[in-house]
Design a protein that fits this description.
The strands form two sheets. Strands 3-4-2-1-12-11 form a six-stranded mixed β-sheet. A six-stranded mixed β-sheet has the order 5-6-7-8-10-9. It has helices spanning 15-25, 44-49, 117-139, 172-182, 189-193, 209-212, 225-228; strands at residues 2-7, 29-33, 52-57, 65-70, 76-80, 93-98, 101-107, 143-148, 187-188, 219-223, 231-236, 252-256. The chain has seven helices and twelve strands.
Amino acid sequence: MKIATYNVNGVNGRLPVLLRWLAETAPDVVCLQELKAPQDKFPLEAITGAGYNAIWHGQKSWNGVAILARNNYEIKELRKGLPGDPDDEHSRYIEAFINGIVIGCLYLPNGNPAPGPKLDYKLRWFERLTSHASGLLAHGVPAIITGDYNVMPTELDVYKPERWLDDALFRPEVRLAFKNLVDQGWTDAIRKLYPTEVIYTFFDYFRDAYGRNAGLRIDHFLLSPHVADRLQSAGVDRNVRGWEKTSDHCPVWIEIGE
């Protein structure tokens, strides 16, 4: 079973890129972030035509998450939004049960400029995610939490880390929040298989970041123990970042055994 995450940076504007990637790589499940589309503007007809079912949590202009699954997999929606803040109207989390696995798709807040209210919101959101993730582990069901975390966990995950010390994606308190989440018992899939390799999932549009390999690793797969034991392979479709009118993120994927 191949599961992917992809921050599309606008699902309608990048639809040709998304459909091409789906056709070429054929993942079984896909978690999308930054739809930047209201609930009634999700391109369901095109996604269905590509052979996928879908659930989504849209928002006009910003945010938005979705989970796609090939037609032979049933999607049972479990929740939209994280618990813990009924006033939070950002469309940043959606969760489903697919083929015996709970899959959470997230778009964690950026947090910049930092310090400030946006960083405070990011850290509160992280606390809610950590609490919810703890509950998933306690239930003992196979679970995956994937998406754009907007965190570089270590210096290995960022080009020229000294330039990012005050950025909300790399500040110590943000990295500590990610570490606390992982330390509950989650496995960072990429680092399990590639513990020392330089791997990036995001390249800015400016200064030829993609051409210089000046990237960040901010799109992550966290696996519960039941899934981590089944992990067979993982990778980044880096070439997609070089396509015309593409997202600034690359698709990231894992393969797990039955």
